[in-house]
Amino acid sequence: MAGFIGKERHTIDEKGRLMIPAKFRRCFGKGAVAGVEESDSGLYIMKASDRSLELYEPFIWADMRKTISALSDFNPEERLLKTLMYESLEIVELDRQGRIALSREFLEHAGITKDVVIIGGDTKMIIWDPDRLQSLLQESAGRFGSLAGRYF
Predict the structure, then answer these.
(1) What does residue 71 show for φ and ψ, rounded to 5 degrees?
(2) Domain of residue 70, residue span
(3) How many angstroms separate the Cα of 107 from the Cα of each of 30, 48, 53, 127, 136?
């Protein structure tokens, strides 16, 4: 079954809330796995290293959590990765209007002041400041063919 696909432009309101597009909200829970507890409103949001934000449903994060939990606390690199991942993670609640509140820390990380682009990345939503996304796309315009050739 298809996950989050497409691109939408939205704005952050004066309270730092972001409306999740209706077409993405309709996809919520469609890939849930039996036996995995899922909150109706909690979503996992993570600061990505490319200065975007990534938004995950609970059942997707459950798989990632298993992988992270399997890392050793006694291996310095694995422990560092766990720290970096969890330092960059929050749980946000979806309100009745389909909005999530983004903290100032997360907004600043992504350089978001008002407008955002939300990209459906199949198992996650990727939230970008429009100018940062446009810069990335312009800088990477000629790389699609070589990347696709390498991985497909």
Answers:
(1) -70, 145
(2) 4-29+37-151
(3) 28, 12, 9, 10, 18
pTM above the 0.85 mark? Answer: yes
Residues lower than pLDDT 70 in the chain: 1-2, 30-41
What are the Cα distances from residue 36, in Å, to 6, 10, 30, 59?
A: 27, 31, 13, 6
Query: CB under 8 Å to 55, separation ≥6 — which residues?
Result: 20, 43, 44, 45, 92, 100, 124, 125, 126, 127
Q: What is the CATH number of the domain that holds 54?
A: 3.40.1550.20
Q: Please name the residues in contact with 107: beta carbons below 8 A apart, sequence gap of 6 or more.
A: 12, 16, 113
